[in-house]
Amino acid sequence: MLTVLGAYSWINIRFLLEGAWVTVLVSVCSIILSYIFGIILGIIRYVQIKYLSAIVGFVIDIIRNLPLILIIFFTYFGLPNIGFKPDPIWASVIAMAVFESAMVAEIVRAGIVSIPVGQMEGARSTGMTYWQALRYIILPQAIKNMIPAIVSQFISLVKDTSLATIIVLPDLMNHAQIIYGQNTNYTIPMFLALAVMYFIVCYSLSLLSQYLDHRLGTAKKSGEVEEVVQSVER
Amino acid sequence: MISIFQNYGGALLYGLGQTLLCSIIALIFALIIGSGFAILEVVPNKFLRIIAKVYIEVFRNIPLLVITMFFYVVIPMYVVEISGFVSGTIGLILYSSAFIAETVRSGIQSVDPGQMEGARANGLSFWQAMRYIVLPQAFRYVIPPLGNQFINLVKNSSVLAFVAGFDLMYQGNVIASDSLQSMSTYLCVGVLYLILTLPLSYYMRYLEKKLA
Amino acid sequence: MKKIISRIGLLLTLLLMVVSLSACSSSASQKNVLRDDKQTKTITWGVKADTKLFGLMDVRDNKIKGFEIDLAKAMTKQILGKDGKARFIQVTSQTRMPLLRNGNIDAIMATMTITPERAKQVDFSRSYFDAGQAILVKNGSPIKNVRDLNKNGDVVLGVVGSNSVQNIKKFAPKAKVLQLTDYSQALTALKSGQGQALTTDNGILYGMSIENPGYSVVGGTFTKEPYGIAVDKGQGKFRDAMNNALTKVEQSGQYNKLLYKWFHKVKGFDFKGAER
Q1: CB of B195 within 8 Å of any CB in chain A?
Q2: Is A184 in contact with C191 (CB distance < 8 Å)?
Q3: Looking at residue C137, what DSSP letter applies?
Q4: Which of A43, A114, A160, C14 is the most buried (most CB within 10 A)?
Q5: Which chain C positions have a beta carbon within 8 Å of A193's beta carbon?
Q6: How many inter-chain contacts (A to C, CB under 8 Å) are there?
Q7: What's the CATH code of the domain at C152?
Q8: How confident is the model over C223-260, as pLDDT tens digits?
Q9: Which cellular compartments is it found in (chain A) (predicted)?
């Protein structure tokens, strides 16, 4: 009992919360970046611009099929070769953003494909250009369909930040390891704290996703997108 | 890059083998456990549904690394000695089974409820109807997403590097520090991962198109 | 079919680009670390944060503390003057070499042994601490020295990128070596029974045995591990400045004070041999 109390002393809790803060910071930054870039890349991949779309599509496929740890190594050890020296926090943000952008791009592409062709044809026949139709008719519907899938992707992102401990990102996982590394009796309490903290963040995001799903009334017709969700969830 | 393959080819291939082995073992068990919980999620008994729901939500919302480290660090301390490879594989099974359960459940629910009702009307029990009528149809729907789960499994198996599981990523780390050429080594490792995942990923997309 | 060929073509172009990129990186660096550091009044050190006595993260104030940290601070003052600042970046045995060569850090002071292989990649200062490799086992373990590990193929734990894992292959070729990502992971693995012994330099092991009375260092040292400060190739002036600073710190008696501060509680530590 004493060891449990010792494990959850204010000093340790504060140290864990400092780690949790880094986890949240890295997650939020990379969520924003990957949302923006993911949508742009997804559209580029969908619209079939000669060469560009093929290249973007291929790069997305490569990134999607590599383990995230490898991408973290590439950003941390590789980026300095082109003159940018990120610290572990930036390296993680960039790695996460690159990886998740590719994931989101795939969701966006599938989301656009799931909109019936008639929508585009109808919009074009009322005199809209291709880009106008995409911007005002297709995308708003597609994004509505995609939101649950994108939120689940972001849940994965939060969990995946733990992998960046390998480059000594001072996140929740790393700080917990430091604490139980210095006192073995704290091992189980630390794992419990880790599980609870990650669960709270991720489960509230997943409740948000269910709420949005319900609110947007996409629960029924998003069958096709749900398949995409399954395919991107890690 | 070529020199890495020449000098450390054997170690890399061994790592590739371990990654594949661990992924296949994890896929088989995760498929069994995942399908089990997927069925529990749709049975009439509310208590069983809650158990399934709790299991799935817990393992979906905790990082794989935390689960794996738990089995590597805590279980041997108090229960039984297990190696890094085994603890990594157990972590992968538990984590992936939660996702597979969700995939299979959506497959089961996409089968027309009339199928179940018809089967029950013909005198089959719930389990018989599930086994012979609903599941075979559900699996047809879920093959592409399951393929994608397998790709994720291969990628996620890289957590074995944290617990000295001798997988491809672990061998990559060891070779990178031995040869002191980290970028070239990790490029080699990347190519090997792509050999496993990329063809599968294209095949699954082809299947998706064909089934749609 | 056409699509497949174009995909393969793309892949090859991409590979070529990446390979040429990584080839560029191996060219010698043009920068002058000593001049840059004098301008910014800061030296960026790569240090350990998981190694008791040398560099350990203090949970209470989130600062790294240890012998190497204090020595690095003292040397920074010698090189840059009174207002020189030392910046510390946490490294592991796995990340320190790439980080130095990429320029994220100016120098490594992270329990790094001077070896001929490493000297091909980086320049070393002269040794600032003489360690030797040893093994840490649970009290009452049948393993008394490194030879015992060879008898029945025991599992030895080490850290990725440390040279102790290479040495152990020479002294106990039958032992199976597991390499973990850092020392706190390796120690946790030893306590979990993932291996029968943990091997690394005695200084690090002493730090572990202070915190964990159930474990002890046995058999004495079986290699010589002089720790050096590593700087990037082509930074000869920076290395000379390091050597001068080290000499001054030693002559002023500051070195021995730091040694006493960190190692006076350690049982079995050879003070007379380590003093400068």
Answers
A1: no
A2: yes
A3: E
A4: A160
A5: none
A6: 75
A7: 3.40.190.10
A8: 988 999 999 988 999 999 999 999 999 999 999 999 98
A9: Cell membrane
Decide if the complex's ipTM is over 0.85. Answer: yes
A2-232 folds as MetI-like fold (1.10.3720)
Cβ distance of B66 and A234 shorter than 8 Å:
no
CB contact under 8 A, A54 and C22: no
What is the C-alpha separation between A137 and A146, in angstroms, rounded?
15
Instruction: Write the single-letter amino acid at C17.
Output: M
Q: Rounded CA gap, C232 and C121, in Å?
A: 8
Domain that holds residue C217: 133-223
Whether C6 is in a domain gets the answer: no
With an 8 Å Cβ cutoff, the interface of chain C facing chain B consists of: 15, 18-19, 22, 25, 93-94, 97-98, 117-118, 121, 160-161, 166, 178-181, 185, 188-189, 191-194
Number of domains in chain C: 2
pLDDT for A85: 83
List beta partners, residue A230: none
Cα torsion A14, A19, A20, A26: sign: positive
CA distance A181 to C197: 17
At residue B140 the predicted structure's pLDDT band, cuts being 50, 70 and 90, is confident
Note whether A62 contacts B73, CB cutoff 8 Å: no
List chains adjacent to chain C, taking adjacency as at least 3 C-beta pairs closer than 8 Å.
A, B
Per-residue pLDDT tens over the stretch C22-34: 544 444 456 788 8
Specify whether C42 is located in the same domain as C110: yes
In chain B, % of residues over pLDDT 70: 100
Do C60 and C189 lie in one domain? The reply is no
Q: Residues of chain A whose C-beta is under 8 A from some C-beta in B?
A: 61-62, 64-70, 73-74, 77-78, 81, 155, 159-160, 162-163, 165-166, 173, 177, 180, 184, 187-188, 191, 194-195, 198-199, 202-203, 206, 223-224, 226-227, 230-234
Q: Which CATH class is domain B2-211?
A: mainly alpha
> Among B97, B107, B102, which Cα is nearest to B30's?
B97
Give the CB-side neighbour count of residue C217, counting CA atoms within 13 A.
23
Question: Are residues C153 and C235 located together in one domain of the fold?
Answer: no
B4 vs B10, C33, C231, CA distance in Å?
10, 30, 25
B198·A65 Cβ contact <8 A: yes
A80 to C102: CB separation less than 8 angstroms, yes or no: yes
CA distance to A6, A8, A176, A178, per residue, from A2 (Å): 6, 10, 19, 20
